[in-house]
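Researcher: Re-running this chain for the archive, since the previous output was lost when a drive failed. Same request as before.
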Amino acid sequence: MSRQPRTQNVTTEAGEARITWVPAATATTAPAPAPRLVLAVSHGAGGGIEARDLKALAVALPAHGVTVALVEQPWRVAGKKVAPAPKTLDTGWRGLWPALAAPGLPVVAGGRSAGARVACRTATELGAAAVLALSFPLHPPGRPEKSRAEELLGTGVPTLVVQGGNDPFGRPEEFPPGAYELAQVPYGDHGFAVPKKSGLTEAQAMEVLTGAVTGWLTSLG
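Model: Regenerated C-alpha cells:
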C-alpha cells in the first residue's frame, strides 16, 4: 500500500520553505520498488508546485523507485506574488538541501524555469547527482542576446533539459551544443501547454515529459 505525501517545513536564511514529499511506493499488487533516489524539483517565478509538469512527475515517478520532493521557496510559502533576486533563491535552495539529502539517497536537483536556473547554479557545490531543467529560460522572450546558457553549461553533472517546442524563453533549436541531454515536448509553451490545433492533448504532452524524465533517471543507474 502506498504511503501518503507529507509536508515538511524547513527554516532557511531566506525564510521558511516547504517540502512536499511524495514517497517511492505504489498501491498496485506488485511490490513497490525500493527508493533509489530523490528528485527535488522547485517551481518557477510565476507559480507553485501545482504546475502541470511538477504534478505529472509526482504522479509518475514514485512507481519507478523515485521519491519526489516538491519544493516551495520561502517567498511562495510567505504568500508573496513576486520572486526575489536569484541570489535569494539560491540561498533558500541551499538551506533546503540538508533536508533533501537526509533520506541518504542520491539527490537529483531540478525545477522549472527559475527553479531550473537555481538547480543549475548550485549543483556542483551542493553535491547534486544530476540536474533536471524543465522549461529552462535560455533568454527573456524576444531577447536572445540575453543568454543564460552559461548556467546550463556549467552544472558539472549529468543534466536533462525538457523544453516545449514553442517556448518563448528558448525553443529547443536555440540551445547551444553542450554536455547535456535535451528532450522536446512538441508544440509546448513555457508551461508545457499545447494548442488544440496541434492534435496533442495535455495528457499526451505530459506522457512525453514523464517518459523522457523516467528514461533519463533510469540511465543514471
